Every structure is written in structure tokens, then in C-alpha cells.
């Protein structure tokens, strides 16, 4: 669902996918190969929100800000299920864990990993390549090359997802029983621990 607000109309590149159950409002610019999941709300009613190429905003995320602020989610930023980004900027190729809250004027550096359910206070500056966890969130160590390789591979799946959704996602009537020919999807991605122990 795409809404204009006070004359601002969202700009969405044709290669990106905004789920019909997501809401994108106002001064929002969405680059190439971005995925916006169902239940996500991206509200550019009070300021501009820019999603650079390859960003994903997963199910039930919120992106918003105080009036007069503008924010940017840089290339390949990855925002996990249920996270809230309120007036914060996200660096290139960072990972924001599920149900994390990042508050106003916070700056998340490039290639950071912010753990699930972290709370990043307003005006916090997180240096590049930091691993961040907790409430309040703290830097606990540096992100390794292996960790960022794992993150980048996961984000690549979400960068392919818009094309897959354009090709195959459609509203249907549910089946009433499981077909005998139903297969389980391929194992194409592993947890970080399994990735490190490959």
C-alpha cells in the first residue's frame, strides 16, 4: 500500500518489491532490489527516508522519525523482523537483529551487526564493523571477516527475493489437504555457528 502525503509520493524502483500488506507513505525513496515485507510501515510523513539499493525491511518493522529529520539506510542494510528504526541512520551492509529498537540520531556504522532485541539509545554512535548487543546496547567486539561474509550471504537472499516475489507471489485460495508431492525448500543458508563450522 503506497500513499501520498501532503504532495509527497513515494519513489520505488521497479526492481524492488513492496508487499501489498506493507505501508509506504510520503517522502520515501526506495532504490533497486529492495524488499519490504508484510506489516512493515515506512512513514515519510515528517521527513525523508532513503533506502539505498539492496536494503531489506522485513515483516512488522517500523521506519519513522521526529518532524524535520531525514534518515538514510545505506546499501545492503538488513533490518530483521519487528525492528524499529526511529530517526536513525544505518551504515552500508549492516545487520539489525529482530525486535531491535534504534532511537533518534543514532548512527550505525558500516558492516555492523546489532543483535536481536538490542536497544540503541538516541544519539549513540556505533563505529564501523562493531558487534552490538544488549539493553542498553554496547559494543562487545569487532565483526570478523567470516561474520560479515555470513551476513552478506543472507542479505543476498533478500536481494533476490524481490524478483522471486514479482515472478511467483500471488494471492490464492488455500489447499484443504497436503499434496503428496509437496517438497521441503532447499537448505540454502545456515546459522552463523554452522557457517563458521563448515
3D structure, described in words:
The chain is an alpha/beta fold and 198 residues long. It contains two helices and 20 strands. It has helices spanning 145-168, 192-196, and strands spanning 2-3, 11-12, 17-18, 23-30, 35-36, 41-51, 56-57, 62-64, 71-73, 78-79, 84-86, 89-90, 95-96, 101-102, 107-108, 113-114, 119-120, 125-126, 130-133, 138-142. Strands 1, 2, 4, 6, 8, 9, 11, 14 and 17 form a nine-stranded parallel beta sheet that branches. Strands 3-5-7-10-13-16-19-20 form an eight-stranded mixed beta sheet. A three-stranded parallel beta sheet has the order 12-15-18, with no helix packed on it. The radius of gyration is 17 Å and the shape is globular. 36% of the residues are buried. The mean pLDDT is 95. It holds the Pfam family Hexapep. InterPro entries: Hexapep (IPR001451), Transf_Hexapept/Carb_Anhydrase (IPR050484), Trimer_LpxA-like_sf (IPR011004).
How helical, in percent, are the residues?
A: 10-25%
SSE pattern? EEEEEEEEEEEEEEEEEEEEHH
What integer is the average pLDDT?
95
Radius of gyration: 17 Å
Q: Tell me, what's the shape?
A: globular
| Relative strand content | 25-35%
The total of beta strands comes to 20
Note poorly predicted spans: none
Q: Give the N-to-C terminal Cα separation.
A: 41 Å
Number of helices: 2
Structural class by secondary-structure content: alpha/beta
Largest sheet: 9 strands, parallel
Highlighted features:
198 residues, alpha/beta, 9-stranded parallel sheet, 2 helices, 32% strand, transferase activity, Trimer_LpxA-like_sf, Transf_Hexapept/Carb_Anhydrase
Amino acid at each position: 500500500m503506497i500513499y501520498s502525503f501532503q504532495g509527497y509520493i513515494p519513489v520505488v524502483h521497479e526492481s524492488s518489491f513492496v508487499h501489498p500488506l506493507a505501508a509506504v507513505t510520503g517522502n520515501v525513496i526506495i532504490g533497486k532490489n529492495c524488499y519490504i515485507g508484510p506489516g512493515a510501515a515506512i512513514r515519510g510523513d515528517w521527513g525523508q527516508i532513503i533506502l539505498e539499493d539492496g536494503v531489506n525491511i522485513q515483516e512488522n518493522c517500523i521506519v519513522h522519525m521526529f518532524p524535520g529529520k531525514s534518515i538514510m539506510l545505506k546499501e545492503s542494510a538488513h533490518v530483521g523482523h519487528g525492528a524499529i528504526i526511529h530517526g536513525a541512520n544505518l551504515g552500508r551492509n549492516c545487520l539489525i537483529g529482530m525486535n531491535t529498537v534504534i532511537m533518534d540520531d543514532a548512527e550505525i556504522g558500516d558492516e555492523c551487526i546489532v543483535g536481536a532485541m538490542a536497544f540503541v539509545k538516541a544519539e549513540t554512535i556505533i563505529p564501523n564493523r562493531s558487534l552490538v548487543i544488549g539493553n542498553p546496547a554496547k559494543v562487545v567486539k569487532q565483526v570478523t571477516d567470516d561474520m560479515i561474509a555470513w551476513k552478506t550471504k543472507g542479505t543476498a537472499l533478500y536481494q533476490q527475493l524481490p524478483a522471486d516475489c514479482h515472478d511467483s507471489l500471488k494471492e490464492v485460495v488455500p489447499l484443504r489437504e497436503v499434496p503428496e508431492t509437496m517438497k521441503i525448500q532447499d537448505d540454502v543458508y545456515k546459522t552463523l555457528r554452522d557457517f563458521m563450522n563448515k
